[in-house]
Amino acid sequence: MDGGKFSWAKSKDSVLKTVQGAGELVASYDPDFALIEEVDLNSTRSYHVNEYTILKECLADYDTVFAQNYDSAFLFYPFTQPHGKSRSGLALFSRYPVTDSLRRRFPVSTSFSKFFDLDRCYSISRVPVDNGKEFVIFELHMSAYGNSDAIREGQIRMLAEDMQKEYEAGNYVLCGGDFNHDLKAAEDDSADKESWAYPFPREELQEHFAFCIDQLTAQEKNDLWDSARNADMEYVPGVTYTVTLDGFIISDNIECVSYEDINTGYSYSDHDPVYLKFRLK
Questions:
Q1: 72: which residues sit within 8 A by CB, 6+ positions away?
Q2: Could you tell me the pTM of the whole model?
Q3: Order of strands across the sheet that contains 33-40
Q4: Does a structural domain hold residue 211?
Q5: Can you tell me the distance from the alpha carbon of 281 to that of 26, in angstroms, rounded to the nearest whole number?
Q6: Between the N and C ends of the chain, which has fewer C-beta atoms within 10 Å?
């Protein structure tokens, strides 16, 4: 689907090994929260392996929330290896009890291109805090820039308004996932980039919100491992296009203690994990 040779995984065994490996990697960091996107429940591309079940076994002591964002009976494309049946979504794992969770549907294209895109959404999950407030986690997977300016702007506006409502209610807000925008790039960045990887319009965020990556120095940001690679070829260091699409937005009542992109060499996916340590103020 991204210009590579195959639209399915190499084999069922490779799916089992990579998802197990990804789950064990997450568990090795012993996180309080883990946000994982593109988790297949029953898809042709992943040989109908229930990846969510594997992740739940790796993170057995966690509360978990699943928000479905793709459900296709059968997509007959690409014609040489049809994408087939797909059912997947966003998974949240929490060390603390999640008292409520809501799926919010992003505005998406209504044109023919919808058949090649996901039913983009985000989940809103609530974790009670001892001071009577709530820690509210937004997990998302946004559309790529090339989809449509109007769709992109509508998704960002909707997300920003929902986060602002939670902040005004006195809550702590964290938003993480695949933003499908180049998070390292500034709005006026003229460097060569893929047509879908454009800077995130920071001015659309409310004044009390910021990307954690923006709290790094220019050198720290430049040295940060890119969280994603293009899937049009095998990964070849220095040759394959890489970009930072994944990250976190936090409200100003949360302190970013440390922030890093974990370099696995894209061993388990075309994305690598982002690791954030934070503190509620």
A1: 83, 85, 86, 87, 115
A2: 0.91
A3: 33-40, 84-94, 63-75
A4: yes
A5: 26
A6: C
Total domains present in the chain: 1
pLDDT at 10: 80
> Is residue 1 a part of any domain in this protein?
no
* CATH number of the domain enclosing 135: 3.60.10.10
Place of tokens 């509360």: 63
pLDDT for the residue numbered 195? 65
- Look up residue 183 and give its two tokens: 């998070």
Question: What digits encode the pLDDT tens for the residues 95-109?
Answer: 999 999 999 998 876
Q: Which of the four pLDDT bands, split at 50, 70 and 90, describes residue 132? A: very high
Burial class (CB in 10 A: 0-12, 13-18, 19+), 190: exposed
Range of the domain at 271: 12-280
Q: Find, among 37, 89, 23, 2, the residue nearest to 246 by Cα.
A: 37
Main-chain phi, psi angles of 95, to 5 degrees: -70, -25
Burial class (CB in 10 A: 0-12, 13-18, 19+), 203: exposed
Residue 6 lies in a domain: no
Residue found by looking up tokens 């997450």 in the block = 26
Which residue in this structure is represented by tokens 């996107």? 37
Residue 2 lies in a domain: no
Between CA 37 and CA 124 the distance in angstroms is 14
d(CA 255, CA 224): 19
